[in-house]
Amino acid sequence: MIINMKFKRRKSKQREKIFEIIKNTTSHPTAACIYEEVKKKMPSVSLGNIYRNIKILVEEGRISTRNFGDGLEHYDAIVDRHYHFVCENCNSIIDFNIPISSNVVKSAQKRTKHKITGHIINFYGICEKCNKKTKRVKKGEK
After folding, report:
1. How far apart are CA 71 and CA 130, in angstroms?
2. What is the DSSP letter of 84?
């Protein structure tokens, strides 16, 4: 008799702390950033533990990985498809709250024989904060 039991992982304080950090930030942190934050509360944590727990969180579907072209994996607690804005000045990554465009997929599908299942769009430019700084500098303010 074969019993099909879903593997259940034990709850981990480290994993929950990592999830909490990712969930409570909009900065899309890297593993190194998460490590620095966790280490403040759990000094004995290792970077290897951070990576293992991040992998588990991704496997469980609680977080997703994002790549913004900087060679680093960033982590996001919003696992639904959504767009991002990346500031070319300060490198901040901001969730861009606009509806996902199904027209992009439909248009692309018409041009290929590949089966398209989704898309990723990142918008690039200067964030509001950096834009305000630039305007103040141009006006001679500090």
Report:
1. 23
2. E
Q: Which tokens hold the place of 9? A: 């992982």
CATH of the structural domain 12-79, one choice from 1.10.10.10, 3.40.1160.10, 3.40.50.11060, 1.10.150.20: 1.10.10.10
CA distances 30 to 5, 43, 67, 110, Å, are: 33, 18, 10, 36
pTM: 0.76
In order along its 142 residues, the chain shows pLDDT tens digits of 454 445 567 888 999 999 999 999 988 999 999 999 999 999 999 999 999 999 999 999 999 999 888 899 999 999 988 999 999 999 899 998 888 887 888 899 999 999 988 888 899 999 999 998 877 666 665 5
